[in-house]
Specification:
The protein has 22 helices and eight strands. α8 runs parallel beside α10 and α18 runs antiparallel to α19.
């Protein structure tokens, strides 16, 4: 990579920042509509750009601010107009800051037709600041346009949302991002393999800025290969990932424990390992639908207080051989019911789970007491899963929590995040378990239960009887699975964390 001359080199993500709407990649649903409004001279008084980081929200805001004023945005690294004001709400989030904006909008633009206010990280404003800005956003002077950008739409009050034109920036697809990285690599004379570029794009997670920054970080190497990317990111090789997946699907829990311990010991973080395993299993899942349940459970690792233990528990439990009472006992899983069967398996019974027929070539040493118990209870559990499939089509607990968040019910959401649950389809009863007396008292209030019932009815068309248990939740099946393989016992249980 060429870097002639002294001084600090300009970061690639800044050097290749788009200077026109046509150069913005992966957001046609935004750029085409904005371009049409520019062509017709029809501008809104306030825009709200939402979406994850690094997808072009601030860049498009700057381009739009220049284009509505007929300015050339060829130099994207400088703000060439005093009538385009950028504000970082993360550090200017109080009522006094908003008061300055309200006073400023009363002054006509100096050089341009429109005075543009770009407010980044808009969700960071305090509640009083939102209220103070509401009237100004609703009825600004005719020469003022607000362009707001946020990564957390759920934190923006509904009163604001109803007064702006909203544009959502999607994660950029991997193929398109890899193509964009190839263009940059060729322009900068960076020697990088196609497979390595794709891995960089995948690790970018849909963020153009993150992917370009990673390419910039790796650019000092003479040649960038998959191995180079793995070393920098702390990822495991494809061969090791394939071996881990094989150990899981072939029912070899001891091999899984050994390999995971080795990987974590080599510095691979549990959350990073879970993410990489999710990516790998997602590619296998179309031919092995039973893996969808494991993928869903692995998403819990990043939210766990002790991610290493949670990851080990999930993988060991997934690799335990399964025993079915008879081929006809297990219900046939349909695509629509996969989430139901998976969730009910994990939550309704702490001993056994519905799964494919046991692998006769599996590690015989892993047939533990827990597995033998599973054999004796397989038939009734399968019947319960079949009934649950008919009653609740996709009972995914996290969906309930997310729905409460979208409905702006933070108290109910926070309380539900503290709960474990068991659902009985035969009696249509939902039992909630809490580790603290305070949470149990809160859960018994009519306000909480009404919110929960309304959400369940909206998502699954069911209104179960809610029972708040005074007893602790049964031992988590994930933990029981690990104990059955490695031995030992639980010594302390506090708030659901071991």
């Amino acid at each position: 990579m060429n870097n002639s001359g002294g001084g600090a080199r300009l970061a690639l993500y800044r050097k290749y920042r788009p200077t026109s709407l046509a150069q913005v990649i992966g957001q046609p649903q935004v750029t085409e509509i904005l371009q049409a409004s520019l062509d017709h001279g029809a501008f809104a008084h306030a825009y709200l750009f939402t979406g994850q980081r690094g997808t072009g929200k601030t860049t498009v805001a700057r381009i739009l601010a220049h284009l509505v004023n007929g300015l050339d945005y060829s130099d994207n690294l400088s703000n060439d107009s005093i009538d385009i004001i950028e504000i970082d709400a993360a550090s200017n989030n109080g009522v006094d800051d908003v008061r300055q904006i309200r006073d400023s909008v009363q002054l006509a633009p100096m050089n341009c037709r429109y005075k543009i206010y770009i407010i980044d990280e808009f969700h960071m404003l305090s509640k009083p600041a939102f209220n103070a800005l509401l009237k100004t956003i609703e009825e600004p002077p005719e020469y003022v346009i607000f362009v707001l950008a946020t990564t957390e739409l759920q934190k923006v009050p509904a009163t604001i949302l109803s007064r702006v034109q909203r544009f959502h920036f999607k994660p950029v697809p991997v193929e398109l991002l890899a193509k964009h990285l190839r263009m940059i690599a060729e322009s900068e004379q960076i020697n990088v393999d196609d497979d390595a570029l794709r891995l960089i794009a995948e690790h970018g997670g849909g963020s153009v800025r993150d992917a370009i920054t990673l390419l910039d970080q790796l650019a000092g190497n003479q040649s960038i290969t998959v191995e180079t990317v793995n070393d920098v990111l702390g990822l495991i090789s494809q061969a090791e990932m394939s071996q881990l997946a094989t150990n899981i699907t072939k029912g070899k829990p001891r091999s899984v424990i050994s390999q995971v311990n080795e990987l974590i010991g080599n510095g691979i973080g549990a959350t990073a390992l879970a993410k990489q395993l999710i990516d790998h299993l997602t590619k296998l899942a179309p031919d092995q639908p039973e893996l969808y349940r494991l993928i869903e459970r692995l998403l819990e690792v990043g939210r766990a207080g002790l991610p290493e233990i949670k990851l080990m528990a999930i993988l060991v439990d997934a690799s335990l051989p399964r025993v079915s009472a008879s081929p006809s006992a297990a219900p046939k899983a349909t695509k629509a019911a996969q989430s139901t069967v998976a969730q009910a398996t994990a939550k309704s019974t702490p001993v056994s789970k519905s799964a494919p027929k046991a692998n006769s070539t599996g590690d015989s040493r892993s047939e533990t007491t827990s597995t033998k118990k599973a054999a004796s209870t397989a038939a009734p559990v399968s019947a319960e899963l079949a009934e649950a499939t008919e009653s609740i089509k996709e009972l995914v607990w996290q969906d309930v929590i997310n729905q409460l968040a979208e409905q702006n019910r933070p108290s109910a959401k926070s309380l539900l995040e503290q709960a474990d649950y068991r659902y009985s389809a035969s009696t249509n009863t939902l039992t909630l378990f809490f580790g603290k007396t305070f949470h149990r008292k809160q859960a018994k209030t009519g306000r909480f239960q009404d919110s929960l019932l309304t959400t369940l009815d909206e998502l699954y068309q069911v209104k179960p009887m809610i029972v708040i248990s005074e007893e602790p939740a049964p031992l988590d099946s994930d933990v029981a699975a690990v104990l059955s393989v490695v031995g030992g016992e639980v010594t302390t249980i506090s708030d659901g964390t071991i």
